[in-house]
Amino acid sequence: MKLIVNIKELVGILPEGVVRKQGSEMDDVTSIGNAFLSFQDGKITDFGTMDDCPAEETADEVIDASGRLVMPMFCDSHTHICYAGSREQEFIDKINGLDYAQIAARGGGILNSADLLHRTSEEDLYDQTMSRVREMIGKGSGAIEIKSGYGLSTEDELKMLRVIKKVRENSPALIKATFLGAHAIGRAYSGRRDEYVDLVCKEMIPAVALGGLAEFVDVFCDEGFFTPEETERILEAGSSHGLVPKIHANELACSGGVQVGTAFNALSVDHLERTTQAEIEALQDKKTMPTMLPGSSFFLGMPYGKAKEFIADGLGVALASDYNPGSSPSGDMRFVMALGCIKMRLTPNQAFNACTVNSAYAMGVSDVAGSITRGKRASLIITKPVPSLAFIPYCHQTPFIERIII
Ligand code: NIG
Ligand code: FE
Question: Which domains does the chain have, with CATH numbers?
């Protein structure tokens, strides 16, 4: 048993069985001052105030956390970190005036990454992905969802998903895989979109399911990408093969993707830079977690999701990084939390819940991650000496992690 003692504040405690927070529940973060926490075999075994701390002699290792916070590691429920190379030329094109949709329309963007990935060996792709996972763990993420979607042919989509599987087997982080064959129409299918959707439904999805390579199916349901009708076909095929839907929607337009997602009991609908009251209504009383990606709003200069309105209407909100080479080349969940506060006007408590328990829910792991709960994974951040939780998004460039336990 390992023991952390003298914790100034143990932050993010939840009772067993709470899997997400909605509406005003998002205002609360339960903490204990002057606390201890014990863990064994990778799981949290106990915690409480120092008055109830077990004798230090009973522990294999004692970690003194005087002046420090201990909190659950972040959960990043939406990433595209299995990609090859980088796209800084498009970054320069954007600076010079092109927007994301214009770059995509002239064959850049996702198709550019697909070409690069096609030319990259599986080993090299694994090394690149693993190094991003290591970078993200160092920045405090303990659970990471990773999407395919830069293959866009059966062969290359399966290559990506095999890489993600190997990352899952070799990384201490909790990894979940999402099949995103419908990220763009593959170059070979240009002008033949129905045939591409057929390929996704009839060849890719069965192959992914047969190999046990993903738990989720995602579609980029947005203007210029896939229509709600195409999305329905793909989610139907995915659901019939046991893949749970997650959706990209409302990044470029009010796409109808939120409504398709909730109709198919999607675990999450993600992006949501552009929404109206209709999306809020579609999400009421649903199991679907609205997930906002402020890193891509920041990077592309798009509107930020209306998280405060969602919460005021009783919904939960999750935040994730969207780490990818085109719209959000960063997997720093602390920065995401800071953007949640600074740009979306979430309180630090709301942003913390959005980056922990709710993002755990949005990737199907909130039974084992996302809070300080007995029996959950001991994936913890021990902070540097900081005055409070709010300091973390406030002084958002000051290093705050002293030690990661994962
Ligand atoms: O979530 N919007 C669609 N997909 C990614 C971007 C992918 C890319 O540009 O490479 C996103 O922002
Ligand atoms: Fe994305």
Answer: 2-73+371-405 (2.30.40.10), 75-361 (3.20.20.140)
